[in-house]
Write a structure and sequence with these properties.
Distance between the termini: 51 Å
Number of domains: 2
Order of helices and strands: EEEEEHHEEEEHEEEE
Structural class: mainly beta
Shape: flat
Number of strands: 13
Low-confidence stretches: none
Mean pLDDT: 90
Strand content: 35-45%
Radius of gyration: 22 Å
Helix content: 10-25%
Length: 250
Amino acid sequence: MSVVREMRCPHCSAPLHYAPGEALFTCRYCGYTGYIDLSVQFKLAHSVLPPRLSAEEVDGIVKKWMETGYAKPRDLAKKAEVKERRHLLVPFWLVPVKATTNYRGLLVRLGPSVEKSGKVEGAYDWFVLARSGVKVPARIFDLPVSERVPFNLGNLPAGVEALNAELDAEGAKEKAKREIELFHVERAKESVDRFIELKTEYEFGEPIYVHVPLWFVRYEYRKAPYEVIVDGHSGKILFGELPPSEIGIF
């Protein structure tokens, strides 16, 4: 069991609760964001993708998802029962970065080994999940980041909870490095099968702290639990657990 600790918001003096390992907090009373270590000043931008969906709208999106598509039980929409909805603002870091990977390797798939060299490069707004223990898709490239707005607690719907971050800006850069190199390696494997040399260089912009509204919907079908995650800004299904479909011979 994690030990919950308490401190006071330096802006409004309200009580703040945080768990070991958390690095940043957002006050649920005034919306102030800062580091748990109050000796470190938070100077970066804090924004949010505005939540747009009510619980009823989310239920409709999930039901439509259950009714359409392949590999779903025919009676899923009829028999599934929503047991829980959690509306959370999940913390991410949006890391602007230019990355260039130079590599040298061997192509062996077509016969005798052939040495090849090449380069993979890209400019990204790389999303880094700032909290562990939250099941979200590993890579989210298509969130409408241009629609983010400055974080303002007064503009958020009642009942939504902003989770604290466990990863600070420097940690986000390091995590982005690891993820981008893996991404570039997969792209480079289109040209070579074995690497002799590989080096990636990075140019970082200033990270932006972003809270993304997600609905975590837990439903039950034939007494078994499943989960669906809905983007609370766009209404897109980001993740959906499905019961095994029944395929029979008629």
